[in-house]
Fold:
Amino acid sequence: MPGEWQFEERDAAPGALHASWPAVERDPGVRRVARCRPTTPAVVLGSTQRSDVVDAEAARTAGIDIVRRRSGGGAVLVTPDDPVWIDLWVPVDDEQWSADVTGAFGWVGSAWGEALAGLGLDGVVVQGSGPGACTRWSSLVCFGGFGAGEVGVGGRKVVGLSQRRNRAGAWFHTACVRHWDPVVLLELLDLSPGERAAASEGLAGAVTGVADEQSAVGRAAASGDDIADALLRSLP
Structure:
């Protein structure tokens, strides 16, 4: 890619995609971007979440794996089609590197904001370094609230971000929703019927997807490839 980004497609199970990035391990001094395509669905838990937030029997019955990532945040349901998952790697000597962990999300969010605006979405807002609007479900479900650099449309979250670092650089996980429906994820979490109903209601209005927004105004829905290409064009 122009701008010295090395691009690759990564097709693998979600656990493998989170466990390692072989190209980075071979040469951590190169700026990289990867379109990640999970080959199976999974509930991905944040690094500090308890495993028992997921109903293991419900996940097993549905054929959905339970995976843990080494970055913070709440649970995310990933499937081969949604959300659009793109990882970014920045070495420590890169101009996009920042020693400020929270501030480092700024350019990532700006790139996603530009990408969504380029897809015709109105009211795109990139969250600053402080926490944004949250629901009571934010600690449980990643898309339940806004963190630094995350992107929303009309006050509803579209892009979630997380980050992990080592001495060589920073690895950003980014996920952009195409269609939002919290029901499938909530059915896999260990919640009472009342909690599940309340979470479904609260999350329904807290999140939206690119295709949801486009369909609402009569536009053709962007594919995952369209969304990924828009981000690649927006990278600094």
